[in-house]
Amino acid sequence: MIPLLLSLLACNRTQPESPVVQDSDTGPFYAPAVDCGERVLPEQGTLYRWPYLQNPQPDGITVMWGTTAERSATLLWGADASLGERATPQVQAITDLDPLMNLQHVTLSGLEPGTTYCYGLEVDGQVVASGLSFQTAPESPRAPLRFIALGDYGNGSPEQMAVLEAIKRHSDGVHFWVTLGDNAYTDGLHPEFQEKVFAVYQELWLDTPVMPTPGNHDWRAGNLTPYQDNFTVPRMVAERDEQEAYYIWQWGALELLALDSADSLLNVSAQDGDELDWLDQVLATEQERWRIAAWHHPAYTGQPNRTPELQVVLGLRPAVEEAGVPLILTGHNHMYERFSNVKADQKVEQGSTFITSGGGGASLYEIGPNELLDVNAQAHHFLLVDVDACTIRLRAISSEDAVLDDWSTTRC
Questions:
Q1: Over 70: is that where the pLDDT of 49 sits?
Q2: Average pLDDT in the chain
């Protein structure tokens, strides 16, 4: 039955032509560096949650932070350390934190692409943070970039902290993070997000945006409300009141397909605009940028007790394989695995590469054999990914700085 369903799904998809890589745009892709002055971090008690960056675009970005209920805050920002602009945030009360938190955000627009701006925060008339910076996304589809990918991480363990320390040692030149699900253990609740995610990564996320994907633990309470409260992602379906758990986002030479691999993907009665229909429409269009997909549940694995979920095998995997997406990043299984040049459970001359990276901090799983498997490792780790117009290079780096895998692909 499964091979038949796979065939039917594949027949309904139109594979786009290979991307055309233009040679005309050679940069510069990023504006010169800006001196934002002395870096002043929030003292204890001034903020509930340090500021963090969301959804950078060529012309804008969202800055988020949290205060206690009785405090008001203002975003200070500008093209230099003088911070000549002020913005009043929108406020959402997060009532299932004790004490209550006012989660605040400002979305800036009209900015220049690939440009660094300075920012800080003023609380009750006192500047509590300054010398911080954010960068807008470059506009050119040839602009190079570096990002960190991290899966199954927010559990508060010593292993999570060890991976964090390794990330700090390799954070130079990183433009943003991508999460691969299971952001907050065990139930994806607001207290878990605050204690095990935002309080842990607060210093790195001051200047580096994070683009999330959800996992089963983020869905554990039966909804994605805390996850969607805490993260701001591009809206895909304007008619809906809530933002989606999936989105498409671009930074330079990368187009990220951030997807939700929940069971509801196989609900054939889903309303118009459901994720698989949307994904097919996206993949049917030609794109000069490298497409990289990210979701939580793996498409291939050698782990003996955590086989791929049906919604991935019947839905997401055939979609990206038929479209020739070169790299897919997943989590869920707490290990590292790479399956290169695969399609429909077979090795092919030129196929997709699937990475399982669930080693961000949660307890490790047993690794096992699979005839399609190229590399695996039972180790806590993160991914460091470099992308330019011609090449993707991915390194899996352990919490002890060992390079578990070094993979690349090129198209020029």
A1: yes
A2: 92
Tokens matching residue 373: 């498997």
CA distances from 276 to 207, 219, 223, 259 (A): 33, 19, 19, 10
Structure tokens at 177: 């993070």
CA-CA-CA-CA torsion sign (144, 387, 260, 284) = positive
- Residue 212: pLDDT above 70? yes
Q: How far apart are CA 124 and CA 127, in angstroms?
A: 8
Q: Please state, in angstroms and rounded to a whole number, the distance separating the CA atoms of residues 249 and 236.
A: 10
Beta carbons within 10 angstroms of residue 280's beta carbon: 16
Binned at pLDDT 50, 70 and 90, residue 317 comes out as: very high
Q: How far apart are CA 345 and CA 300, in angstroms?
A: 8
Q: Are strands 352-357 and 327-330 parallel, antiparallel or unpaired?
A: parallel
Q: Which alpha helices (DSSP H) does 199-263 contain, by range?
A: 199-205, 225-230
pLDDT at residue 6 is higher than 80: no
Q: Find the helix or strand (DSSP H, E) in which 283 lies.
A: helix 275-283
Question: Hey, which residues does 330 pair with through a beta bridge?
Answer: 356
pTM (2 decimals)? 0.93
Residue 127 and residue 216: Cα distance in Å, rounded? 39
Helix (H), strand (E) at residue 165 = helix 158-169
Output the six-digit token pair for 220. Answer: 């554990």
C-alpha to C-alpha distance for 36 and 20, rounded to whole angstroms: 38
State the Cα angle at 199 between 195 and 202, rounded to 5°. 155
At 200, list the tokens: 């842990």
% of the chain surpassing 90 pLDDT:
86
Residue 293 pLDDT > 90: yes
Within 10 angstroms of residue 33's Cβ, the number of other Cβ atoms is 9
Backbone φ, ψ for residue 132 (5° rounding) = -90, 165
